[in-house]
Structures are given as C-alpha cells and as structure tokens.
Write a structure and sequence with these properties.
By secondary structure, the protein is α+β, with helices and mostly antiparallel strands. The protein contains four helices and 16 strands. The protein folds into three domains: 99 residues, no CATH class; 79 residues, Herpes Virus-1; 44 residues, no CATH class. Strands 2-1-3-4 form a four-stranded antiparallel beta sheet. The relative contact order is 0.07. The structure holds zinc ion (ZN) (8 copies). It comes from Paramormyrops kingsleyae.
Length: 278
C-alpha cells in the first residue's frame, strides 16, 4: 500500500546515493545508551544504511528503496552497510566497527534486518524474520507459514496458503510486515484487511465464501425471523437448490461443484424483501 503514514518524508528523499542521510534521525551522540537511539526510517529503527546490491545506492531499508526505485531490493544479497553516525562503510554486522554504535537491537545476518527489539526471530522454513516472541508461534509445515501457537492442531491447513496474495488488498502476505489472520476455512488475509472487512460488514471469506467466524447466533436469529413470517400459501412447500461450497472446492472444476447442492425451503424475508433460501 502506498498510503503509509509518513511523517518524515521529504519530496527529494533517497534518490541520490547517500542523500537518504537527511532522512535519518540522527541520534544524540551524547546519549549514554547508544543502542537505544531512535534512528532509521518509517519502517525500522536502525542506525545504518544498507547498500542496495542492485544499484549500489544507500537506503535505510529495502522498503524505502522500493518506494523510490523502479526495481525491488533483494535483502538477502546485502553485504555492506554505512554507519548513520560516522559514515563508515563496512561489512553488514550488528555494531559499527569504528564508532561502536549498535546498528540495531535486533540483527539478522540472513535477512540483514536491523531493528528495535520486537522479539523477532528468523524462521528458516519461512526464510525471513518474523516478529515473535518465538515461543508464541510455530511453523506449520503444510501451510508453510508461522502461525500463533493456539492454532497448532486447531486450524485448517491450506498448502502454501501464504504464498497467495491477500484477497482483500491483493498484496503479498508471506513477507508482509502486517500480521496475517487465519480464517476458519484456512485462507489468510492481513489482520488489518480482516479488521477492515469486519468493520464494513463482511462476514465471509472473500475466496471461498465460508463464514469468517462462528455465525451460529446470526443463523439462529434468522431462523427465528423466518419462522415468524410464514410464506403466502402459493409459495408454501416450494423448495430451491443452493450451492454448498466448501473451501476445498475452491479450485475444483465447476462441473464438480455444480452437483454439491442443498435443497431448502424457499422463503422471502419480507422485512428486507430478498429471497433467503434457508
Ligand atoms: Zn536498487
Ligand atoms: Zn524504510
Ligand atoms: Zn559508526
Ligand atoms: Zn532473518
Ligand atoms: Zn515460519
Ligand atoms: Zn497449517
Ligand atoms: Zn491485505
Ligand atoms: Zn476461505
């Protein structure tokens, strides 16, 4: 999403090598605790710039790079960083070899991720760092994704589910910095997109139309309303077929799905005036 809140953005930021320096919050160098300084960009708290392996320019992070360049930066190929305090260019490491400032409370030597300590951990099967704490998550081999521990043995696995884009914003989920929400059907969307969908009155998985949470009370209320509004005599006893789509039918051929139907009494809910086949 392009509309990130960006309090410190400047129109000319980060287009020329080294210029991103102006975007770095310079630390109070007299500060007693150097590692606690709040430098970085809108995405990460860090005191160094990464040398983009693609174009050789220095950016605070790959997202800042991707925002202004026409190509994407491969975080795994970063080898050099530049200290935001003393400008020394050096191998990617956690601490400046010259002024000894910590580039980040957290450092991953695989992703070259520097940030404030958010209890991050690097998940090898995911291939990236995730925000922990690690003991609150497990990597589900089938979904091929780190999920909250309370979902262990308690969710519907969809193979490689996070490699599909979010059905709401159509953006990447696997490497997203926004957490994922697992629907009862096993499909994933960003937590923020789920919250938005919920707020807008959506209650179904956008991919398979399965309920996004337990709708028991809602259905009971509907059944009650229906029983209190009998159909006119000419419609009584009439039934209709409705598709019964299950999440696993999502990628099934239409010919197969067509046959999965339920026969239910026709009912027009007069209060709202639409056909409610339940
Ligand atoms: Zn580049
Ligand atoms: Zn950034
Ligand atoms: Zn330094
Ligand atoms: Zn990592
Ligand atoms: Zn993982
Ligand atoms: Zn799973
Ligand atoms: Zn989304
Ligand atoms: Zn679904």
């Amino acid at each position: 999403m392009q509309q990130r809140t960006n309090v410190q953005s400047k129109p000319d930021r980060q287009v020329v090598e080294g210029e991103c320096r102006s975007d770095v919050f310079l630390c109070d160098t007299n500060s007693a605790n150097m590692s606690a300084c709040e430098c970085g960009c809108e995405h990460y708290v860090r005191s160094c710039l990464l040398k983009a392996p693609c174009c050789g320019k220095f950016y605070v992070c790959r997202l800042c790079h991707d925002d202004v360049e026409d190509h994407q930066m491969d975080r795994f190929r970063v080898t050099e960083v530049k200290c935001s305090l003393c400008d020394t260019v050096q191998q990617s490491q956690q601490m400046c070899e010259k002024c000894r400032v910590a580039f980040g409370e957290y450092y991953c030597s695989i992703c070259h991720l520097f940030d404030k300590d958010k209890k991050q951990y690097h998940c090898l099967p995911c291939g990236i760092c995730r925000i922990g704490p690690k003991e609150n998550y497990f990597h589900c081999e089938k979904c091929n994704l780190c999920l909250a521990s309370n979902l262990r043995g308690n969710h519907k696995c969809v193979p490689d589910v996070s490699r599909q884009n979010c059905p709401v914003c159509l953006e990447d989920i696997h490497t997203s910095r926004t957490g994922a929400h697992v629907l009862p059907c096993g499909h994933l969307l960003h937590q923020t997109c789920f919250d938005y969908m919920h707020k807008m009155g959506g209650y179904r998985c956008p991919l398979c139309m399965h309920s996004a949470w337990n709708m028991k009370h809602c259905w009971e209320e509907m059944d009650k309303q229906i029983s209190e509004t009998p159909m006119p005599s000419e419609y009584q006893g009439i039934t209709v077929k409705v598709p019964l789509l299950q999440p696993e039918h999502l990628y099934a051929p239409p010919s197969c799905v067509r046959n999965i139907q339920a026969v239910v009494p026709l009912h027009v809910r007069q209060r709202r005036g639409f056909v409610d086949a339940r």
